[in-house]
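COURSE: Structural Biology Practicum
ASSIGNMENT: Worksheet 4, Part C
STUDENT ID: 0417
INSTRUCTIONS: Below are two proteins. For each, the amino acid sequence is given first, followed by its structure token string. Answer the questions at the end about the second protein only.

PROTEIN I
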Amino acid sequence: MNVRKAMLILLAINIVILAVSLSVFASTVIKVSKGIEPAQEAPAKTLQMADAIALLAGAIAVVGSTVASGIALRAVATAGFAAAAEKPELTTWMLIMGGLAEGIAVYGLLLAILILGKI
């Protein structure tokens, strides 16, 4: 299996997951706007529109930060491996820059936790 075929399979899987997530979110928004409670055995709190928007904001924070982290890691890995091939002493700097790029995803996760903590 070549890399292109594997990437296409992963892309198809991600599209399916995104479609399922969007359908669940849309059905929740419709239920909230109609005043129908989501089916739960013992709801501690009904889902209001402000809560649904906060959930969406948390999801956007995580998705945006992980995509940005992936873009940054790609740039760091590409340039870092090329530089490390010429000068092996730059490997440490490549690892430091990779850690900084991963920090973007961690900040997005922390922001989502702070947003969801307000619900």
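PROTEIN II
(use this one for the questions)
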Amino acid sequence: MLSATTVSGQLQVPSKAQRVGWWDGGAQAGDPFGSVVLAGHVDTKTEGLGFFARLLDVRRGEVVVLNGAGHMASYRVVSVVSVRKDALATKSGAFDQTTDHRLVLITCTGAYDASRGGYEDNLVVTALPVGLAQ
């Protein structure tokens, strides 16, 4: 897992399809509040399917296990929504650090627009903790 930073208000996703970025402005596993934000590719032109391609099939109620920052924590998916890329930071609430602790997984979805170099939307999967982090 790599650190994912923001540049000019845009979350920078790792370039490799099988890597996932952990937003450095967010919470850590086991924190009492705030959003743990992970972002990764659904696919790339040169590497095929990305690690987060599996998010396209995730459903409410499924459990996601996060290993990182010296902790392991389980989360139950409570929402799976598509958000326009230009509204991810402002309308999705994905980066909210004042909320109760949660996990937010972000990847691309929607129509692919080759002329613009990417997908039109982001898939935002939100999950709440199940028990305490270990």
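ANSWER KEY EXCERPT:
Q1: DSSP finds one helix and eleven strands in the chain.
Q2: The chain has a mean pLDDT of 87.
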